[in-house]
Amino acid sequence: MNTYDVAVIGGGAAGLSAALVLTRARRSVAVIDAGKPRNAPAGHLQGFLSRDGIPPTELLALGAEEVTAYGGELLHGTVSSISRVDDATFEVTFGEGQVLSARRILVTTGLRDEVPDVPGVSERWGRDLLHCPYCHGHEVRDQRLGVLGGTPGAVQHALLLRQWSHDVVYFAHTGSLTALDRQQLVARAIGVVEGTVTRLVVEDDALQGIELADGQVVRRDAVFVRPVFVPNTGLLVELGCVTHDNGWVVADATGGTSVAGVWAAGNAVDPRAQVITAAGQGSAAAIAINNDLVDEDVRHDVADFLTGHADDVTATTAPKENNHA
């Protein structure tokens, strides 16, 4: 069985960033990734300094090259379990029953988006059915935009999106609007369309509009939706990590969880983390993990030194005889 200082579960921006820092610190690192990044449908990612507009797959490929150049190992497979062997060791099972050993664990498994069950939504996800104005708003600026309601925070999503276009329509769908919601939407010159949305109208592989239950089609160039974020934290929960009431794992500023030796970073613990944010969180977690390993290394070295030099230590610390009369 191969043994590493750190096993990183998830090879996205957070995981690769952590692996880069750790390998440069001369730690042995294995990154295990299932090859299903959340942003795979997106053609480009924005807002990443010096990499604005780069395809997500290209960013990950560049990161993987950097990690392997410093000696990190990239392993393909889905992690099925993580178990603690003793106070200083974990076993990770992945793929077709492969097992490795690691002194520390970093989980960067991200989250999954639960979107309304409307025909066309899943197919257009990341293309012209979007969720993040900061990621995609500039690319669809001044176009005819829609916001699909029915999920928590959808109205706030529409209010935010208004700064990218003067033509924004809020589709109530299965949601309801309060008097304050309506007041704010009207004040921002955002149109409101009542009625259940039945499908996204797509022609020639491009969104044309939104169809309602009464057959009406409202022309739109792009539609935004506020998905429900569900963290992929099954491995962390099985390890015994404490969670908030909403199910998200509790982690400190460095990603440290309630379980000694286990860290988490990126969307697995922060639903709002963008790619660049997740990368920063991975870096912070890596530094904390390395510091923790250094502390453990020092304790072991001191114990070994004292064991190997017990006579010398006794001689230097024994009280001297008093020869004075």
Describe the protein in words.
The chain folds into 2 domains: 3-113 and 229-305, 3-Layer(bba) Sandwich (FAD/NAD(P)-binding domain), CATH 3.50.50.60; 116-226, FAD/NAD(P)-binding domain (3-Layer(bba) Sandwich), CATH 3.50.50. 30% of the residues lie in helices and 26% in strands. The strands form 4 sheets. Strands 1, 2, 3, 4, 5, 6 and 17 form a 7-stranded mixed beta sheet that branches. Strands 8-15-9-10-11 form a 5-stranded parallel beta sheet. The chain has a 3-stranded antiparallel beta sheet with strand order 12-13-14, with no helix packed on it. The chain is an alpha/beta fold. The longest helix is centred in the last third of the chain and has 34 residues, at 275-308. Helix 2 links the parallel strand 2 and strand 3. The chain is elongated.
The sequence of SSEs as H and E is EHEHEEEEEHEHEHEHEEEEEEHEHH
By CATH, the topology of the largest domain is FAD/NAD(P)-binding domain
Strand portion: 25-35%
What is the strand tally? 17
Number of domains: 2
CATH architecture descriptor of the largest domain: 3-Layer(bba) Sandwich
The average pLDDT is 93
> Could you give a short account of the major beta sheet?
7 strands, mixed
The helix tally amounts to 9
Pfam family, one: Pyr_redox_2
InterPro entries: FAD/NAD-bd_sf, FAD/NAD-binding_dom, Ferredoxin-NADP_redctase_2
Catalytic activity: [thioredoxin]-dithiol + NADP(+) = [thioredoxin]-disulfide + NADPH + H(+)
Organism: Nocardioides bigeumensis
